[in-house]
Design goal:
With 161 residues, this protein is of the alpha/beta class. Helix content is 51%, strand content 16%. The chain contains 6 helices and 5 strands. Strands 4-3-5 form a 3-stranded parallel sheet. 17% of the residues are buried. InterPro entries: LysR_HTH_N, WH-like_DNA-bd_sf, WH_DNA-bd_sf. Belongs to the LysR transcriptional regulatory family.
Length: 161
């Protein structure tokens, strides 16, 4: 069993037709049929039921289809991960939050976004008064401080509140 045959098999099941799958895959239909026959021989199972209307997977075919999709997706993810070595943001970020500010309302959406889009970044939250956060700002990457003027100021401007 190899990845190319699994890719072919998944495409056939997705489309429901050997002929149309062959066109999409840019392979001759007899060659595609031979690839399916080889796969069926390797597994000693019939994988597709061929009819005049197209093909449908057998029970064994449905099981293989589920696993093949997972395998192909994992191969794509592995290739992407290897290609992105050195290009992915990773590391630790500390975020300081002053209690009673609007910052607490964005905490969960922020953490969910970071987890989904930057899985290699570890976020640490620190909740303290604005003064304590300013004192420890060398250990905090980003501070949300609510000033009496209602403006959000950068860390370097926090003393103007």
């Amino acid at each position: 069993m190899n990845l190319r045959r699994l890719k072919y098999f998944v495409k056939i099941v997705d489309i429901g037709s050997l002929t149309q799958a062959a066109e999409v895959l840019h392979i001759a239909q007899p060659a595609l049929s031979q690839q399916v026959a080889t796969l069926e021989g390797e597994l000693d199972q019939q994988l597709l039921i061929r009819t005049k209307r197209g093909v449908t997977p057998t029970e064994a075919g449905k099981i293989l289809y589920t696993h093949a999709r997972t395998i192909l997706r994992q191969c794509e993810q592995a290739q992407l991960a290897v290609n992105n070595v050195g290009h992915i943001l990773s590391g630790q970020v500390s975020i300081g939050l002053a209690p009673g500010t609007a910052a607490s309302a964005i905490t969960m959406p922020l953490l969910q976004t970071v987890r989904n889009e930057l899985p290699e970044v570890m976020v640490y939250l620190q909740e303290s008064s604005g003064t304590i956060l300013k004192i420890s700002c060398s250990a905090v990457s980003w501070i949300w401080r609510y000033c009496t003027s209602g403006r959000r100021l950068p860390v370097s401007s926090a003393s103007r509140c």
